[in-house]
Amino acid sequence: MKNNSFEEIGNIIRKAEKILLFPHINMDGDTLGSCAALCKALRNLGKECYILIEDHIPANLAFLDRGYCTSDQNIVEKPDLSICIDCGDADRFIRRKEKFQQSPITICIDHHGTTEFYCDYNYVDSKAAATGELIFKLLRAMDLPLDREMGGAIFAAITTDTGNFQYSNTSKETHEITAALYDTGIDSNEISVELYENNRIEKLLIKNRALNTLTTVCDGQGVIAYVTQEMLTETGALMDETEGVVEELRSISNVEVAAFLKEAEADKIKVSMRSKYKVNVADIAYSLGGGGHERAAGFTLYCSLTEAFDMITEKMTDSLGKL
């Protein structure tokens, strides 16, 4: 299957009056920033539009929600249109899936290479550094002006998903789109402070505990660390405050691939993987029921932490052994 055009998708959006936007669970800056920008644009058109969520918004992303987010699935009883944003499959919003499917028309806008076309209209571009880039292009195709708030939300989407423009997915076009956002009057420093300098002390405590679990694989080419529910209780931290740990692991000299295991609950382990140059972690994730990008991917294992640790060690050793 091939993508629909932004023009086609824009025409469908213009015809709808009641629209729900669906970010993925464990929201990051890309999914929420993209949703916030699109929600503001659609409200500017006079649409009844909300971002439907099922979990809490991380503290450093709270500034993006200006009355857009709701967990009330009945706030729009019969939506004309449902749009999932930055979601590779419907399991990424499992508790909202039924509501999503109530709409007579569904749209998917995403940038994950493992995304399958599962909506009526789809635009998936794995070359895009962030879904925020695609929202920018959609709004341009619809000839909708971007204001300072929308520009800031898209900037947040792009900067977080590119590791502040450090990751290999960053392209010339990424910088060109970002440059255009400055024309809306954004204050990149103000946004960056909200995103990166707005941490509770509990986040530093849990990061320290997690890094103390570090184990090396294949003479230090791979590293694995984990966090447990007990560690969260002891530090008073929230699970979303472990975001960024896997990037810290990858930043270690000579490390090619890193994995961070999060004990969501007993026998449910969420795994984030990152690589620097050669290992395609999306392949590993896909083989275990997940997905993502070549250098950043994730999946969930339904087993004990010890079993998950052993499984990831085996997968990592196998991948590194092929280099």
Question: How is this structure best described in words?
Answer:
It comes from Emergencia timonensis. InterPro entries: DDH_dom, DHH_sf, DHHA1_dom, Oligoribo/pAp-PDE_c-di-AMP_PDE. GO terms for molecular function: nucleic acid binding. By secondary structure, this protein is an alpha/beta fold. It folds into two domains: 191 residues, inorganic pyrophosphatase (n-terminal core), CATH 3.90.1640.10; 121 residues, Roll (Diaminopimelate Epimerase, Chain A, domain 1). Helices cover 38% and strands 19% of the residues. It has a six-stranded parallel sheet. It has a six-stranded mixed sheet with strand order 7-8-9-10-12-11, with helices on both faces. Helix 5 crosses helix 7. The protein is globular, with a radius of gyration of 19 Å. The two termini are 33 Å apart. The model has no long low-confidence stretch (mean pLDDT 96).
